[in-house]
Specification:
By secondary structure, the chain is of the alpha/beta class. The chain is built from twelve helices and ten strands.
């Protein structure tokens, strides 16, 4: 098996069947980001995909977009990413009230540049709300500036005082930070099928995510959390405030999110799908 990213198998001649799994090629993310892709990268990715014996994608959205980008005639099997539901479990400790968490890379495509405007609106109604931003800062491809510094400029004075920045942490500490949060916000513009969403859902967190493409394959709006366009700042803030003010809704959504993960994204469920898929590929290879 190989990833689709930059077509690393483009010039490989293998004596066994080759499967390429879509977690988002360079072409895919360039399209979602609105960036121009290097011709060399596109050519390598296209060559690799054409040479694969079978294709599998972590989401139907990624499969559809990738097919149209190259284009591809081969069938594409959809098998989502999985998560260990025993490693990511609901916390036994109480949450910290009015704590909102973003965790992931601090980069434009994750929707982080929308967070200041959203949080400014939250703080206007709840001055004691806190936003924790956990992740590695990245230089923005458009401005060549630190994304973190760009975000800091966008917070109101009142909101800026309520923001805590955390650098990369050992994953045990990341899990504890998720556990402490009352609400998790993940307003991404570009994903294939995001592990951060599955991790927070498995831990019974109340989520507000983006509503783009893959979102409907992970979230059920109003049931496992809320899906909102990150550009709709007031609507996004309203959902955060609704969760903050309604503890029973937080609990109900969190429990529904974990149940959804158990039935659709747990290691046990997804592993069985992968085994069936690979048995089919091996049988064809030996025919």
């Amino acid at each position: 098996e190989a990833p689709d990213w930059t077509g690393i198998t483009a010039f490989m001649n293998l004596y066994v069947p080759l499967v390429i799994r879509f977690n988002g090629s360079d072409a895919y993310f360039c399209k979602l980001d609105g960036r121009k892709q290097k011709k060399k990268n596109y050519w390598f990715e296209k060559l690799a995909l054409q040479g694969a014996d079978a294709l599998v994608s972590v989401s139907a959205f990624t499969a559809k977009e990738t097919r149209s980008l190259f284009p591809l005639k081969k069938p594409i099997t959809v098998i989502p990413n999985s998560i260990d539901i025993y490693r990511f479990q609901p916390a036994t400790t109480p949450v910290v009230p009015k704590t909102i968490l973003y965790f992931g890379t601090i980069i434009r495509k994750k929707g982080v540049l929308e967070l200041p405007a959203i949080f400014n609106l939250v703080v206007a109604q709840h001055p004691d709300a806190r936003l924790i931003i956990l992740g590695k800062d990245v230089v923005d491809y458009k401005t060549k500036e630190s994304t973190k510094s760009m975000m800091q400029y966008l917070f109101s004075k009142a909101a800026e005082k309520q923001v805590t920045w955390l650098d990369e942490l050992p994953y045990s500490e990341v899990r504890q930070t998720i556990a402490d949060a009352e609400i998790v916000v993940l307003p991404s513009f570009a994903e294939a099928l995001p592990m951060t969403w599955l991790e927070a859902m498995a831990m019974e967190k109340a989520l507000v995510t983006s509503d783009i493409g893959w979102a409907k394959e992970v979230m059920v709006d109003g049931v496992t959390g809320f899906t909102v366009s990150p550009k709709e700042h007031q609507a996004y803030a309203d959902r955060i405030i609704e969760l903050m003010e309604n503890k029973s809704l937080q609990v109900r959504i969190g429990k529904a999110a974990r149940e959804h993960v158990i039935h659709h994204f747990s290691t046990q469920v997804v592993t069985a799908k992968n085994i069936a898929f690979y048995r089919q590929i091996i049988t064809k290879g030996n025919a």
